UniProtKB/TrEMBL annotation:
Subcellular location: Membrane
Signal peptide (from-to): 1-16
Sequence similarity: Belongs to the UDP-glycosyltransferase family.
Membrane topology classification: Single-pass membrane protein
Protein name: glucuronosyltransferase
Length: 528
């Protein structure tokens, strides 16, 4: 008996690994995702350290991790704090009225790169802290793939096993580094508004955008924080990852070719059982009881409703007024609602909304959303029909990804000022039962997916901690040239041989005809 207990505790210990989750604080949704990863590993019995240097100070008071107790903060330098403020003011509000291709996103990407460079400098000035971290002998480090300061940190801590993760659904750059097929013919790029059915022109754009971006972006490399401070290229490190965790879900995202190294844990932050058991408080309960139908309207925490062009707000409010039997809960961040919604009784404005609790409530009819990936995952798992109005970044792709499942209607951000169009989408989502049925079907599939995202994360993280780097999962195709990878040489050879054979056959046939003493004159047959 004693022996069994002893053995059991030994087994427990032997399978408890030491994880470092590195997550600079620059975005609410990014940190939420990495905190969930940390907590999931903690809950599975592992020793997890959450290292979260501050970039945006507004978020630093927020407690992202729950069960993970070992949290390490690091103050930003003055320069880094200023760059963080720049993210905040990053003037995303222009995207209410302007296009958002990757090229409009370039100034933001530039600020990111500057902030990450300064973050690395801050790490370099806090080597005592890094020495303490090094003494903890981590088995594995998990971090966001495009957060470049992770690499000098890894190098300093001399952690061999790495698990890059992305909080977006699809990151072509990461796919490229690990040798995953990208297939631009039928898989829309991360920030594109295309679906999997693209026209010729769309396929051109979908194919050339990322390589162009790659060309104009600065080379991803870093200077080691250790003597002799050599320069190391990041893509060469990325390919050594044991696995990568992406925030996509095969039952939700486009069907596409992938490799075993890409572990898709999309939906990990949505704990359906917990959300369904959580009840809204009395205030929200009363609001949900006001009318037979309720629609939740939210554009997220980056695109603020208060910055929406006034004519759009006027059109939205006046359209909502035409549906007196519906309560509209609108996440709105200011007190100036009288300027566009005076006297409209069926709108409830609120600066803050308990989004997941509302989505989980059976009285909520539909969700009008900006299609941020967090919201898309939540609403998919909770099975509500959606009105999709993507604004910028990866939201267009997220919207198309969900719309495939037939539970959504879409409206362009440029049509938000048109009452007629708004009225149509409200009518469809409220009165056409097929949207609800399709959304519930998707939620049912997600609830019953063969392997749960949490289990995928824990099993693969443990496997990596135990076996380290996994060269067997590294496809050789990664080392091939463009010409051999796409079989252009083979296709050219087959084409030439076919041409040659055709020519020889033609010549022989010609000779034969010359030798044979028959004349091939057309013979007229009698037709009856
Ligand atoms: C977990 O990590 C902490 C901090 O490094 C360390 O003090 C503790 O001994 C570790 N526990 C196990 C079981 O590895
Ligand atoms: C709106 O008004 C409330 C109460 O008067 C106040 O507490 C809040 O700070 C105001 N919000 C804004 C954004 O002005
Ligand atoms: C959505 O509807 C189309 C057209 O009816 C259908 O072909 C497609 O299979 C449906 N998609 C899903 C995920 O049910």
């Amino acid at each position: 008996m004693k022996l069994t207990v002893l053995l059991l505790s030994f087994v427990q210990l032997a399978f408890s690994y030491n994880f470092l989750v590195f997550c600079p604080l620059f975005g609410h949704s990014h940190t939420t995702y990495f905190a969930k990863i940390a907590d999931t590993l903690t809950d599975a019995g592992h020793n997890v350290t959450f290292f979260t240097p501050t970039i945006i100070q507004r978020f630093s008071k927020h407690n992202y991790v729950k069960s993970t107790k070992n949290v390490i903060h690091l103050e930003p330098s003055e320069k880094l704090a200023i760059l963080g403020d720049k993210f905040e003011e990053g003037d995303t509000s222009k995207f209410w009225i302007s296009d958002s291709t990757v090229f409009e996103m370039l100034p933001m990407i530039d600020t990111f790169n500057k902030a990450f460079e300064e973050q690395t400098a801050v790490l370099g000035r806090n080597l005592e802290l890094l020495d303490e971290l090094k003494a903890m002998n981590f088995d594995v480090m998990i971090f966001e793939s495009f957060v470049d300061p992770a690499y000098p940190l890894l190098d300093y801590l001399q952690i061999k096993t790495i698990l890059p993760a992305t909080s977006i659904a699809f990151d072509e750059m990461l796919s490229y580094s690990i040798g995953e097929p990208i297939m631009t013919s039928a898989v829309p790029a991360p920030m594109s508004a295309f679906t999997d059915q693209m026209t010729f022109m769309e396929r051109i754009v979908n194919t050339v955008t990322s390589p162009l971006l790659y060309l104009i972006m600065p080379k991803r490399q870093f200077k080691s924080l250790r003597f002799p401070h050599s320069t190391i290229e990041i893509s060469s490190q990325e390919s050594m990852s044991s696995f990568v965790f992406t925030n996509s879900n095969p039952y939700l995202d486009y069907a596409r070719p992938t490799i075993e190294k890409n572990v898709q844990i999309g939906g990990i932050s949505v704990d359906v059982d917990q959300l369904k058991s959580q009840k809204v408080n009395q205030e929200w309960d009363e609001i949900l009881n006001l009318r037979t139908k309720t629609i939740l309207v939210s554009f997220g925490s980056i695109m603020l409703s208060k910055d929406m062009p006034l004519e759009n707000r006027i059109a939205l409010a006046s359209t909502m007024k035409q549906f007196p039997e519906v309560t509209f809960i609108w996440k709105y961040e200011s007190n100036d609602t009288d300027s566009f919604a005076k006297g409209v009784e069926n709108i409830h404005f609120s600066n803050w909304i308990p989004q997941t609790a509302l989505l989980a409530d059976s009285r909520l009819s539909a969700f009008f959303t900006h299609a941020g990936l967090g919201s898309i995952n939540e609403v998919s798992y909770l099975g509500k029909p959606t009105i999709l109005c993507p604004i910028f970044a990866d939201q267009m792709r997220n919207a198309q990804m969900l719309a495939r499942h037939n539970g959504s209607v879409e409206i362009s951000k440029y049509d938000l000022g048109q009452s007629q169009k708004l009225q149509e989408v409200f009518k469809k989502i409220l009165f056409d039962q097929s949207y609800t049925t399709a959304s519930e079907n998707l939620a049912l599939q997600l609830a019953n997916q063969p392997v749960k995202p949490k289990e995928l994360l824990v099993r693969h993280a443990e496997f990596a901690a135990r076996f380290g780097r996994l060269p067997s999962l590294d496809p050789y195709s990664r080392h091939m040239s463009f010409i051999s990878y796409f079989l252009i040489d083979v296709a050219a050879t087959i084409f030439l041989i076919s041409l040659l054979m055709f020519y020889v056959f033609f010549r022989i046939a010609k000779q034969l005809i010359n030798y044979l003493p028959i004349t091939l004159s057309p013979v007229k047959h009698k037709t009856n």
